Amino acid sequence: MKQTLLVAIFCLVGNALFAQRTGTVKGQVTVESDGQPLSYVTASVAVTDKPDASVKKFATDEKGNFSVSLPAGKYLITFQFMGMDNRTVPVEITGESPIVDLGKIEMTESSVELGEVSVTAQRPLVKVDIDKLTYNVKEDPEAPTSSVLDLLRKVPLVTVDAEDKIQVKGSSSFKIYLNGKPSNMVTNNPSQVLKSMPANSIKDIEVITDPGAKYDAEGVSGIINIITDKRVDDGYSGSVGANADTNKGYGGNTYLTLKYGKFGFSGNAGYNHHARPASESSFEREDRSPNPENMLTQKSSAKSDGNGLYLDGSISFEPDTMNLFNLSASRYGGTFNSLSDQLARSTGARTYSYDLHSRSVSEYGGINLSADYQRSFKKKGEMLTMSYRFEKNPSGSEYESEYNHVEGDFYEGNGRKLEDGYRLKSVNDPRGTEHTAQIDYVNPLHPKHELEAGLKYIFRDNISRGEYTYYDVQNAAWFDDPSRKNDLDHGQRIASGYAGYFFKTGKIGIKTGLRGEYTDQNIHFMSAKNDTTVQTHFFDLVPTLTFSYQLGMTQTVRLGYNMRISRPGIWVLNPYVNDANPSDISYGNPDLDSEQSHNFNINYGSFSQKINFNATLSYTYTNNSISSYSFVKDGVTNNTYANIGKNQYVGLNVYGSWSPSQLLRTYLNGNIGYTDLQSNENNSLRNSGISGQAFTGLTFTFPKEFRLSANGGVFSSNVELQTTQSAYYFYSLNATKSFFDKKLDIGLSANNIFGKYLRLNSTTEGEGFRQKSIYNIPMRTLRLSITYRFGDLKTSIKKVNRTISNDDVKGGESSQGQGNVPASGSN
């Protein structure tokens, strides 16, 4: 008994002594220049008396955090990361201080000079978080002389085709944010806006793959968040740039960041003039039963030009460490002009021919004003944010058509017969306003647990007004045409609230949430035949769930589910009829209902300094899907939208990049997927098939800051309800030289230099008709760009962590279409 008691006492004393002689060291590794955490930094521990002999090694997690247990003693912990100077920190663990918190350990970027050669190590291009991927624009060697649109082709899960149409995970349903704030004017005209933005003013591009409960419930397959570079400390930094190409296109851009004491300012401006030489196209439609048999052929040529001006500015004021104010404003406006000539011939049941000359102008733009206030608390990470945003989106389009050499009997929809000299004019004025108020609260209850909650209210009004006139040849005068009236008032009031929970421990992370939205909708449709008002009220509960598991220092697996809703916006509701081509008209549908999407995905990512790899397998099921469709009535092809039915998609997105040395970097970005579309009302309206896109390239970096790169893409047909398209490819060659310690960059790029035209075939089939279009689009271009940077970059201007995100409206398929389905034969 005594022996047992002595053994127990000895064990307790031993354990107590051992506990006193063991401690924990923790902290976070960050980048000194911008304060961002460094993922998976390697660290080695050595006893102070033997600094060259490592006794233990570990790595930080994806947010740069670490925690390591060590016996009592004096140590040197050395942190190592490619592209950074090594950082050694002394640590002492005693019985009185068993826990040592090192706080933030800042590492500086390194540069090693060998004679006249300067070699700078590179940080990883891509990193992964529980709900997003981040592309490090600053590490892309082509960024100094590229636009943001150019770099999007390299971003995981994003593809950009030859016509500059953007997709996320193979879908055109997405939103674009600037610094965490959505902008309808950017989303509605992404190609033109992003062409005007210089990539050297961008810090990161985030692809948010699993929007949580804090985001609006409505339908996005993903969110592209573009974060501008705002690094400056009581000083300034900026750049100016210019470019021109052989198609008579040109542009300029500038950005500037200032910080003085508690005040900060950042601004970005860009102008872009684009021009496309004459393109040629042909259109052939065969009508068969139940339509009268007929053959319509059209041959067209068209040229276009346009311009866009983008302005963005924000002011920050930080009176103390607890309070932060942000004010921002942005404006984008532009025009798109087109001149076209068309020869039309119809034989069979309807025999006629005419020559058509058309001129069209589209104007688009928007104004965005926002204000944010962020209140921080003593507890790290706890904050309250209040935001207000106003957005106005004026836009419009007009066209004028003239008919000559008219033969046979051809009538417009209003019953007037075409004759030589007949002219038609149309003006459409769609516009919208939006007010949004929002409050968000975040509370990290524990290092492993975090809660978030918020309330939001959106007041949205959209209208569309049209004017139609025609020229009466007999009376030699213009007359109004009230029979073609199609006007719309569309109002939405949306009240919503959400709650979310985040859990992180060791290698496991969980993020879940629930959002509720109440929608009050009023639609007033005014046509020549009727005047109707439709009011709807509905409530939706939207769940989200994301799970992540860290397999190793650089490998992570994520599983996610979210349900989204797409309310139709003015771009697809607009009933305005675009009949510039009287044989092929297009218009929106004011009777559209919302659609619901269920999204499941599995993601694997492995990211290091030399090799980046990401693969995402996703499945999306959409009920009451909004789709474009075509039908023939009275010899005219009608293109519009409808809630067709079910849309199922299974896709695999793959991204990989390899940098074996400072000389070479190569990458591959693409996706392949299977789509099944089915109408609930018409069993004959069904289509399925495989589609895919891939974009790849390599960059050689030589001494004296000289770089050569080659990029290319191949795109197969997208699977649509009635339309299939031919596959095509495009490519570019680029050369860049830097001068004056990387302050001046001059770049020369060539696109499709071995072929003047890109040939596209499109075939559409429906009940009683089959039509085929062939387009020859000019693609050969040489482009020269110059960028000069100035100022001293140090630390970031602060901005609020939460802000308004209206990612809820489904837009049309063409930014110049003003909500109308592009007419297949209108070119």
Task: Characterize the structure shown.
The protein is mostly beta strands and 827 residues long. The protein has 2 domains: 21-107, Immunoglobulin-like, CATH 2.60.40.10; 128-354 and 364-384 and 396-426 and 465-474 and 546-810, Beta Barrel (Maltoporin, Chain A). 5% of the residues lie in helices and 64% in strands. The protein contains 5 helices and 46 strands. The strands form 6 sheets. The chain has a 29-stranded mixed β-sheet that branches. The radius of gyration is 30 Å and the shape is globular. The N and C termini lie far apart (101 Å). Residues 1-20, 111-121 and 807-827 have low confidence and may be disordered.
Task: Furnish the topology, listing elements before pairings.
Layout: H1 2-20, E1 22-31, E2 42-47, E3 54-59, E4 65-71, E5 73-80, E6 87-93, E7 99-107, E8 112-114, E9 117-119, E10 126-128, E11 132-136, H2 148-152, E12 158-160, E13 166-168, E14 175-178, E15 181-182, H3 184-188, H4 190-196, E16 202-208, E17 223-228, E18 235-245, E19 250-260, E20 263-287, E21 294-320, E22 323-348, E23 352-376, E24 383-394, E25 396-408, E26 423-446, E27 449-472, E28 477-480, E29 486-505, E30 508-527, E31 531-550, E32 555-568, H5 570-573, E33 584-586, E34 595-607, E35 611-633, E36 636-658, E37 664-679, E38 686-702, E39 706-715, E40 723-725, E41 728-739, E42 744-751, E43 757-766, E44 769-778, E45 781-791, E46 809-810
Parallel strand pairs: 1-7, 14-17, 32-46, 33-36
Antiparallel strand pairs: 1-4, 2-3, 2-5, 5-6, 8-9, 10-11, 11-16, 12-13, 14-15, 16-17, 18-19, 18-45, 19-20, 20-21, 20-44, 21-22, 22-23, 23-24, 23-25, 24-26, 25-26, 26-27, 27-28, 27-29, 29-30, 30-31, 31-32, 32-34, 34-35, 35-36, 36-37, 37-38, 38-39, 39-41, 40-43, 41-42, 42-45, 43-44
